[in-house]
Structures are given as C-alpha cells and as structure tokens.
Amino acid sequence: MTEDKPGGVPNEPAPGERVLFGSAFAGSSDQPGATSGYQLPPQYQPPTYQQIPPQPGPEPGRRGGGIVAGVTVLALLVGGAAGAAGGYLVADSRTAGPAAPNALNQAPPARQTGAAPAGSVEAAAERVLPSVVQLQVQSRSSAGEGSGFAISSDGLIVTNNHVVEGAAQGGQIVAVFQDGKTARATIVGRDPNSDVAVVKAQGVSGVPVVELGRSDDLRIGQGVVAIGSPFELSGTVTSGIISSLHRPTRAGGDRGDQATVLDAIQTDAAINPGNSGGPLIDLQGRVVGINSAIYSPRASGEGAGSVGIGFAIPIDQARRTADEIVKTGKATQTVLGVSVNDNPQGGARIMSVTPDGPAAKAGLKEGDVVTRLDDRRIDTSDALVAAVRAHAPGDSVKLVLADGSRTVDVILAGQPVEPN
C-alpha cells in the first residue's frame, strides 16, 4: 500500500507493485486513444517507473471492471488515511480540551454569619449549652462522672441522685463549666425515689441559667435534644424525638425497686453513661426532662450504651422536687398508701393498705385491682406507682377497679423522703 504525502500525491511505488492510477484517473472516455484528463502540477517531475510487461486486458465491453477495481483501491487508501487523521484529531482534542473539574480548585463557600434558624437543633443547643455542667464525682472507693444544668446564676445545679450519691458520705464533686472553669460543689439535697438531686457550686457567679419548660403537654414525635457528657465527652449534643410518654421506668434498672419507679419520657435521642443528669430540651431550648436511664440489652454498667431507647424524668415532677430540696433540703414523695403487685390478668393488685392513708380513707381494700387512674390505663403495678408519682400531694384522682363495678376518688398525700 502507498502512503499519501501532505500534498496528496502518492509516493513512488515499490518495485513490482502494480499501479492503477492510469485507469483510475483516465478521462471520462474509455475508448482507445482517449486522452487522459489528469494534469500534473507544474513543479511536479514524474518519477521513472519500471516498465511493466503488458498483460492481457479484458474485452472492450468489460473494461469498466478495471475502473471499478481501481476506484475501490483508491477509496480504501483514502478511507484509511481519513481514519488515521480522524484518530489523531480525537487524540488532539482530548489532550487540548478543558481540564476535568476538581473540588480542590473551588473557592470555599462564604463563612456562616447568620443566626441559627429558630426552632432548629442548632438554635436550641446554642441556647442551652452554656448552662450545662459536667460533674466529676469522687467517692471513697470509686470515681465517676455525669451531667447537670444550672438553675441559678450563683451555682445551683440540678442533676440525678445516682450521679452524686457516691459523694454523699465523704466524697467530693467538681463542677466543670462550658468555659472550662471548675468549682467544688456540695450536695444541697437529694431524692433517691425520684432520682433528683441539687448541688451547689462554690464561689461562682454569673452562671448562665436554663429556662424550664413543661412536660404535661409533650407529644409523641416531638423533636427533642439531649445534652451532657457521655463517656466524659462534655458538651455533647444529640437529637431525636419523644418516642413515648408515661413509661414506667425503674431508676436503678434491674437493681431498682418500686421506690424508684419514674413516670418517664422515652426518647431515641442518644443517651449514654455520663449523660445522666443532663437536660432534655425541646426545640425552643426549654428543659422538659432530666436524662436519667437507658435501656440496654446488656447488663447496665461498663459496656452499656445507647440503642435508641432512653428515659428522662419529666420536668414537672423534677421541678417540684428540686424546689422542695432548695427550700427545705428534703423532698416530698406523693403516695397512695398501698403496696401493690402485678395482677396476672392485668392491672395492679392491692396487697396491703396503709391505715389512715389516702387509699384506706377512700374505701380501697386488699385484693382490689386497679385498671385505670383518671384517663391512664394501668396494666402493671409499676404503672400505678408511676401514675401516682406524676401527681403532687393533695391532687385528687379517680381509680377504676377491675370489675368495672365502681370507681374510687382518692386525695393523694405526701411524705418526706429520707436519703439512704
């Protein structure tokens, strides 16, 4: 095969190579003696070709076959050259085209300068974080840590009883504030039954104070934020929703008894060891609960962690307890005046009645089974304890008994709680 030069004129053929240019470029006439219409450029000097012996040609009527063949070969030559040129053009286009987009060459976005959107997790956390405190507790035999939140600018801090009870007998508490400042703290009072305690940071002033919300109008699915110091990671913020309300929960877990049953808020906001005592807040930044317990498939203690089921003390109950502790040093527990157990068919069976207590005065007796308290269904004994604890001493409640034959109105009483 021949190779075209830039001018489009074929190179000299190799010896013995058959040349078909004569037939291919002959004029339109194929009669003998016809003159070729092919014109050479003026500067072109024809090369000397080797004489090829004459070959028998086709009959006059079949010479068109030679022209077709010659045109076909030329077309193949031209087509091959065009294909090669096209290939070079594609390669050149890829090399010389625009550079591929690269994120490293992009300018950084503008710095965030606006305020956090109202009602966002960001805005709620920004409002409450300065008031959240890490509590480092040293007892005679061990050390631990938890969380709390400031309710007064001079250092009153609300937390869980189980966070600070280790320091009740000669231990010490150090409060670590969000700005890094530390202060010794002492226990003002604590209530093991409601798992609420108040401590006082010494020698501080100007501490940012939380806003307390309310828990009696919370809704399942409502957004909430938990803040605390899980695994000593202070100032940690997690978010989720309220998963359930009025969940009977024992503050001591499997080791607790009915004296520690809480009427808890359930949330899927991540709560881990160290979150205890920290605030659960709504998206307006108001405290609606105190993070207190978690559910874990493993035994509570080292290794326990969040599986999306956490529990918080409703702020309405915690507020009442904290207020009593601040004013008197002790808390008052709401009581019905009975001991109860689970009824196999559902409800809370009364096992004994305290003489002259609220239940006795209302006519309740041993063996009665309570299935409702006001509009709340009572399906276990813990559910009845939690429902009573959700009320304040002096509240009047209506109890529905299992046989449905009667209801009983009871005025609840209160009794002082003695810390253990």
Roughly what fraction of the amino acids lie in strands?
Answer: 25-35%
Find the CATH topology of the largest domain.
Answer: Thrombin, subunit H
| Overall radius of gyration | 46 Å
The number of helices is 7
In short:
This protein has 420 residues and is of the alpha+beta class.
Give structural notes:
There is one protein chain. This protein is an alpha+beta fold and 420 residues long. It has three domains: 1-82, no CATH class; 117-328, Beta Barrel (Thrombin, subunit H), CATH 2.40.10; 332-416, PDZ domain (Pdz3 Domain), CATH 2.30.42. It is 18% helix and 30% strand. The chain is built from seven helices and 21 strands. The protein has helices at residues 21-24, 64-96, 121-128, 161-164, 315-328, 358-362, 381-389, and strands at 132-138, 143-150, 156-159, 172-176, 182-191, 196-201, 211-212, 223-228, 236-250, 261-267, 279-282, 286-294, 310-314, 332-335, 338-342, 348-353, 369-373, 376-377, 396-401, 407-411, 413-416. The strands form four sheets. Strands 1-2-3-6-5-4 form a six-stranded antiparallel barrel. Strands 8-9-10-13-12-11 form a six-stranded antiparallel beta barrel. The N and C termini lie far apart (107 Å). Residues 1-38 and 60-91 have low confidence and may be disordered.
Question: What's the structural blueprint in terms of helices and strands?
Answer:
Elements: H1 21-24, H2 64-96, H3 121-128, E1 132-138, E2 143-150, E3 156-159, H4 161-164, E4 172-176, E5 182-191, E6 196-201, E7 211-212, E8 223-228, E9 236-250, E10 261-267, E11 279-282, E12 286-294, E13 310-314, H5 315-328, E14 332-335, E15 338-342, E16 348-353, H6 358-362, E17 369-373, E18 376-377, H7 381-389, E19 396-401, E20 407-411, E21 413-416
Parallel strand pairs: 7-12
Antiparallel strand pairs: 1-2, 1-4, 2-3, 3-6, 4-5, 5-6, 8-9, 8-11, 9-10, 10-13, 11-12, 12-13, 14-21, 15-16, 16-17, 17-18, 17-19, 19-20
